[in-house]
Amino acid sequence: MKLNNIVFDKSSFAAEMAKLKNAGNFDYLVTIVGEDFGEEGLGCIYILENTDTNERVSVKMIAEKIGEDHVIPTVYNLWKSADLLEREVYDFFGIKFLGHPDMRRLYLRSDFNGYPFRKDFDADPKKNPLLLTDEPQSDYTVEYNLDSEGRLTSTPHRLFDDDDFVVNIGPQHPSTHGVLRLQTILNGETVKKIYPHFGYIHRGIEKMCESYTYPQTLALTDRMDYLSAMMNRHALCGVIEEAMGIELSDRILYIRTIMDELQRLDSHLLYIGCCAQDLGALTAFLYSMRDREHVLNCMEETTGGRLIQNYYRIGGLQDDIDVNFVANVKALCNYIKPYFQEYMDVFGNNVIMQKRFMNVGFLSKEDAVSYGVTGASGRTSGWHNDIRKNHPYALYDKVEFDEITNEMCDSYGRYLIRIEEMKQSVRIIEQLIDNIPAGDFYIKQKPIIKVPEGQWYFSCEGSRGEIGVYLDSKGDKSPYRLKFRPMGLNHVAAMDQMMRGQKVADIITAGAALDFVIPDIDR
Amino acid sequence: MFDFNIVTTWIDMFLRQTLGLGDFLSILIECILVGVGILVGYAMLAIVLIFMERKVCAYFQCRLGPMRVGPWGVFQVFADVLKMLIKEIFFVDKADKLLYLVAPFLVIVASVGTFSFLPWNNGAVVLDFNVGIFLLTAVSSIGVVGIFMAGWGSNNKYGVVSAMRGAVQLISYEMSLGLCLITAVILTGTMQVSGIVEAQTGPWNWLIFRGHIPAVIAFVVFLVAGNAEANRGPFDLAEAESELTAGYHTEYSGMGFGFYYLAEYLNLFVISGIATTVFLGGWAPVNIGIDAFDSVMNYIPGIVWFLGKAFAVVWLLMWVRWTFPRLRIDQILTLEWKYLMPLCLLNLVLMTIIVAFGWHF
């Protein structure tokens, strides 16, 4: 969607945002995009959604300059997801959020000099040499506020007490699915508090995109969430195509929809395997890996990739589908259908598994919306957040499928939703696979792609939530600002609240059931 | 049945009479022979068990397991053992050196100690005290200390959590383990290992048949508790590789780790061996009361019966290991203290009544 930003006055910003949330029922904060607007200064764009009508609005806020500091009042008190999102903006742009209780860097090292996403950032390696020392860790965090005379004051908050038993789960840990570090305060086996730390695999993909041409930016998408590489790319291609007004042929839409669903099948199969693996049931893990192999084979024949999928491009697809693709996918659908029950038999219906998953990682609907936990993990709280239904793209408004939700709010509900979603994916594929129309697989574009001026946001239903892309174009051949909405960031943000008072072993199961991929969070 | 005493007596006579050695020397030589025998048997069984585990789990998981080293991968474990032996043992900074170094030995001592109680054949029982079963449980408890010391001494937070878990779990499950054994002792009337097996020779005399309902309950509870005692899934809480990386032995390398690895597999065998001895008749062959059948069965050596039964139980435990997900610490303790322990106590009473009234077979 093209963004028409609402602009509030600086003094009334906090009140207006509260009004939007409470009166307008914009209770889902999709993302906060920090941006250096050049002449206007630094600022943020807040994208909000009304979860009843699925209407989206965007609010633009330019940071107020106090001396050398840029400040914006926090919205942390309205949307809990703003906790990490505002820290990300602070990390990259140096905007200080007034009243946010924990203004630490999120991705970069705490001793990093400067704010890299500012346009005047000096990328001289001498300023930020490669350090071989440990990152300095403080027991304190800081909160910024304005005093009565308009001066910036800082209040330190203590993160740990002297007798806290702090265990680092990660960054090198077998079950964090990547290099995530959960700094956990334990009381015996019981979790008191979790501080997530990111950035161990931060590659600055968004920053890199600002110096790349549009076709070049595509190559980075599958390095984010490697289990929803297709959808990541779909979202990026989608936003550029929407901005340029490209009409795609039906063939492209059919193939993209099928490929997205194959990718979802692939991801969910790995998911149910990893749930088993994290509970120590290696056998169930290998059962789903066995079947995932067939899905990968289907995709590989056409795209040439198994994990790293480089198939979509601006204006269509890289190449036409393989001659055997239709037959193979049909064979896959027939092969895999009976196995959904087997996954339940071997693992999902196991009494130990149910004891470990039920009532673990409880997240009410209100919290799921507030934290922005999208995807199947949020749908188990009864939140209808499927982008395919709410903001249809490709062919999702033409095919029949059910949005799976339940009211279990716990890890077991998340597991069951994945099983049901795989059935729906097969259902979608079966509707499309026989009817792929003839036509172009690629709408020819100019050699140098330039996107007209404006700001766009486009999102797809990724394997584990909403993958959104925000694009700000100044009419050049590379984006002025490109921002991905990571799916997993909100999942991890919600973990602290979910896990308090539960056992340390539940962190692993709840994490497995939430389903996050770290390169997607770190970008 | 072939009595192994013939062999041992012959060796004793050979040393004393043919070579004319005194008491001290002949007993010393015999002890060394037995010790070497136990250690060789221990090592060989470990290799067999590791290979078995890898193959069994592979087939449960639609895989082939090791196939490259030697035909059907039989030399894979030898290669692994060789690798383990020549790996460097390095020390953790700020670890408690003494505890860190002693811990693996305690674990292996407990394991070898319990291993020595197993009755391999008629007359082939190494440690055969009149309080055998008691001593056996006592010796096996040394392992807890080793696990706790390893977790505590290696200056690792995962290790500490794992040590706590290991200690609380092992101590808890020793309760039902001991109670199950006592249930069997009530029926046999002796705590001597050889006596227990002796009592089970003859048609339908295995304890699990003789003691019917309480014996079956005790057997099942024994397997559950034994699985927990051997630290194997679904009770591998202390190791919990997906939560605590490797738990108490995270910081061990080379043979330090190797000892834990060995002990884990041998404990599995020891548990199976004790279950076999106490409930399934040890080396006693299958006798059904028909003379022709029984005499054929009696020709099969006792060690074959013992190993066959023990490996059948091992296989059963592996099946469980590779099917169930791991429990959580509070669930494990709930299972023990709220279900298994009371069940064992009731079972003990039941068995006492049955024996007192002579309602067993």
UniProtKB/TrEMBL annotation, chain A:
Coiled coil: none
Its EC number(s): 1.6.5.11
Catalytic activity: a quinone + NADH + 5 H(+)(in) = a quinol + NAD(+) + 4 H(+)(out)
Keyword list, A-Z: Cell membrane, Membrane, Multifunctional enzyme, NAD, Oxidoreductase, Transport
NAD in keyword set: yes
Molecular function per GO: oxidoreductase activity
Compartment(s): Cell inner membrane
Gene3D superfamilies membership: Cytochrome-c3 Hydrogenase, chain B (1.10.645.10), NADH:ubiquinone oxidoreductase, 30kDa subunit (3.30.460.80)
All residue ranges annotated as the NADH-quinone oxidoreductase subunit D domain in the record: 278-446, 449-523
Limits of the NADH:ubiquinone oxidoreductase 30kDa subunit domain: 9-125
Major site of localization recorded for this protein: membrane
Topological relation to the membrane, as annotated: Peripheral membrane protein
Family: In the C-terminal section; belongs to the complex I 49 kDa subunit family.
Subunit structure: NDH-1 is composed of 13 different subunits. Subunits NuoB, CD, E, F, and G constitute the peripheral sector of the complex.
Protein name: NADH-quinone oxidoreductase subunit D
Source species taxonomy: Bacteria, Pseudomonadati, Bacteroidota, Bacteroidia, Bacteroidales
From TrEMBL, chain B:
Gene Ontology molecular function, alphabetical: oxidoreductase activity
Signal peptide boundaries: none
Keyword line: Cell membrane, Membrane, NAD, Oxidoreductase, Quinone, Translocase, Transmembrane, Transmembrane helix, Ubiquinone
Keyword Transferase: no
Ranges annotated as spanning the membrane: 24-51, 98-120, 132-154, 166-187, 207-225, 265-284, 296-318, 339-359
Family per record: Belongs to the complex I subunit 1 family.
InterPro entries linked: NADH_UbQ_OxRdtase_su1/FPO, NADH_UbQ_OxRdtase_su1_CS
Record function comment: NDH-1 shuttles electrons from NADH, via FMN and iron-sulfur (Fe-S) centers, to quinones in the respiratory chain. The immediate electron acceptor for the enzyme in this species is believed to be ubiquinone. Couples the redox reaction to proton translocation (for every two electrons transferred, four hydrogen ions are translocated across the cytoplasmic membrane), and thus conserves the redox energy in a proton gradient. This subunit may bind ubiquinone.
Reactions performed catalytically: a quinone + NADH + 5 H(+)(in) = a quinol + NAD(+) + 4 H(+)(out)
Record bears the keyword Translocase: yes
Main location, first listed in the record: membrane
Compartments, as annotated in UniProt: Cell membrane; Membrane
Name this polypeptide is given: NADH-quinone oxidoreductase subunit H
Self-association state and partner proteins as the record states: NDH-1 is composed of 14 different subunits. Subunits NuoA, H, J, K, L, M, N constitute the membrane sector of the complex.
Domain of life: Bacteria
Enzyme Commission number(s) from the entry: 7.1.1.-
Protein topology in the membrane: Multi-pass membrane protein
